[in-house]
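Hi R.,

Here's the chain you asked about this morning:
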Amino acid sequence: MLTSKGKSVLAKYLVNQAPGYAGYIAVGSGAHPTSNISHAISSIVDANAGEFNYTEVTTATPHGLKVGEQVYIQINSAIDGVYVVLGSPTSLSSTVFSIDLVLPFVIPTTTGGTISKTFVNKNSLDFEMFRVPITSRAISVESGETKIIFSGELPSNERYGISEIGIYPSGSNPVASGIDSRVLFNFSDTEKWEYHSDISQAPDSFIAGLGSSTTGNINVTSTIYAVVGLASDPIFDVAARKDRNEQPRFETNTILMRGNTSAIDASSNTVPWTVYSADNADNMSHIHHTDVSYNFDKNSSGDKLKLAFSLIPVTANATVFSNLKLNAIVQFSASENVATSEYANMQISMNNTSLTTNNYNSRYYVQTANLLDLKKTANFNWSEVDTAKIFISVTENVGTNISASILTSNIATITTSTAHGLSSNTLVQISGRSGYNGLYAITNTGSTTFTVPITSANIASNTTDGGAVERLAGNYWVALDGLRFENTTSAEANPLYGLTGYSIMSQSAANLPVIKQPNTNNILEFKFSVDTGGA
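And here is the predicted structure, written out as tokens:
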């Protein structure tokens, strides 16, 4: 599909005001792969009689839309146009969603018409892996429709899972030299990441087989927290993992971090988050990469960092995701020393809704943060950065809140409103309870009580409800796929450069990315109609 920027650049090209509009094909992994972006409308109705600012749409087939996406509706002159999806279903089988359609009159129930995903306002791929030059151009007629075809040759060595492609006039933005968009890390075995805990530091080790090719279950030793694995590992061939799109997509290898590698207190998003260890001191459990340099103070505060990753349960057929929360920190610091270094944090927090229902029920994610939104220490300076660190924490809420607490002689007794199901030696994270927040190993338990050691002055009994108890989830892994910097402001400001065309890719009707196998030669084609239609 031709984008708005594409229409503008193409118009300038036709009157010799732009050097080109299609020079490179951008290849990405971030979009949800789907083969059907258009659906017939069964009904569109103002379900609330004009009282609220949305309208409900029902499609004849499952639509698989996501909150925030744009859709083009073509049904009648009063309604036709581009809208933002406000409400998303609880599963891909749903055929109902809501849009930001507000008219000065009550909409009667309307049938017929179509709804299509539209990419006219898209300005970058969801997660771009690389670009290849266009090496051939052609025109074809398919089912009476004239199409332009651009082709380029993919890199041969690596494996890629491709879910989106785009067209750019050039390989980079000529007005953003030195500060342009680029991949910072692809988390391969050649990048020399190291795992660093309170007691050890070692390179991330490569494991040829993550688990059983039959069951798809991961069987990595529980004392290992970070490994390098194959994106093509047989565990990802199990149907349940395919259905959840868990397989990493960017190159042949991926770094996996266990969900209990770190314990992150994400209760406030206005300050840099605290990372706990079992003794409530600054935790060293993370992976890090030294000898890096990112002088982002030359970029606009609206430029973005994008982290691509997937969430992988140890048990392939795991069905319980309802109480999960994932917190992650990408930290840029002046040294590897956590206690003394100045740093800037990209902070990611995802609850159950963002992990499941608002991500097509897929477990492959791209999380974005503006440079402006990074949380920094007082004296942080980009020019001093030489280390990147990543902290990962996956927790499961025990399903009950704290109803009472008391701290006596360095032993805290926590009472929960209902049975907590915890056992001795379990690591739990307490948040939202002043004087008790941190990561602790349970020493004794009852049905609704447990004790943990906290070295502090006594705290009187508090019977006010408040605070959460979460179990660190070592039965989940996070597969890191890529970290990218996106210079969106320079691209938007340059009238002769930007994303001129965009499309989603998938394997037929399987809603899986197109796989380019390693050590193979492949040609990628981008087709778009000469007649772009109303969208």
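One quick note: Helices lie at 4-14, 239-243, 352-355, 488-493.

Cheers,
M.
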